[in-house]
Amino acid sequence: MSPLLEAHSLAKRYGRDWVIRGLDFRLEPGEVVALLGPNGSGKTTLLRLLAGLMRASGGKVVRQGRVGLLANPPAFHRHFTGEENLSYALRLEGRSPQPAAIAAALQAVGLPPGKAVLGYSSGMKKRLAMARLRLQHPDIWLLDEPEAALDAQGRELLEALILEAKGSGGVVLATHDRGWVQRLATRTLELSPAA
Ligand SMILES: Nc1ncnc2c1ncn2[C@@H]1O[C@H](COP(=O)(O)OP(=O)(O)OP(=O)(O)O)[C@@H](O)[C@H]1O
């Protein structure tokens, strides 16, 4: 089977400071790779490079499939409702979202209908981001600290989402919660802060 994602000699620096140097990485279908490492070790940077949201300073990333990123914190239109944000994300992909499917997606993550995102808590925003990603259903799922701000039920929803993603694609997720991710990850990648 061909990999979903490959990074070859990937490197990134901000100004003079190298954050990632000479990284080779491969994501196969069915894998859940946990990115671990202390604050500032480059987990978010790596996810953004893999997503194609940031230009690398060296090396390259090859993607075989659609990428979806759950950012930390996730970004939304604050004055739009949850439903409007979900519809908007799908329209951007050229899809015509059905209101019933949008309402069901919102309900599935336990969010109330008709509420503007500016009135959401951080955990509610995380839930909305999960609903969005589930509707987008990418092949390559990139999750930046997805468990942060989620309560126990939110984590259960997240775990179900990760299993769903694993069944149809591959997942790379950054986390500080080693205990939590141990059960889910098929492999871990430790990043170290630059010396
Ligand atoms: N836009 C930027 N400009 C300059 N330096 C940056 C920028 N973004 C990140 N950095 C630096 O790059 C390094 C890696 O940051 P990054 O956010 O990727 O780490 P992280 O492992 O995700 O951290 P955390 O666990 O705190 O979320 C840090 O030293 C950070 O200060």
From TrEMBL:
UniProt EC number: 3.6.3.-
Enzyme class name: hydrolase
Lineage top rank: taxon: Bacteria
Keywords: ATP-binding, Hydrolase, Nucleotide-binding, Transport
Pfam families found in the cross-reference section: ABC_tran
Record-level Gene Ontology MF annotations: ATP binding; ATP hydrolysis activity
Entry keyword ATP-binding: yes
Domain annotation ABC transporter: ranges: 5-195
Protein name: Putative ABC transporter ATP-binding protein YxlF
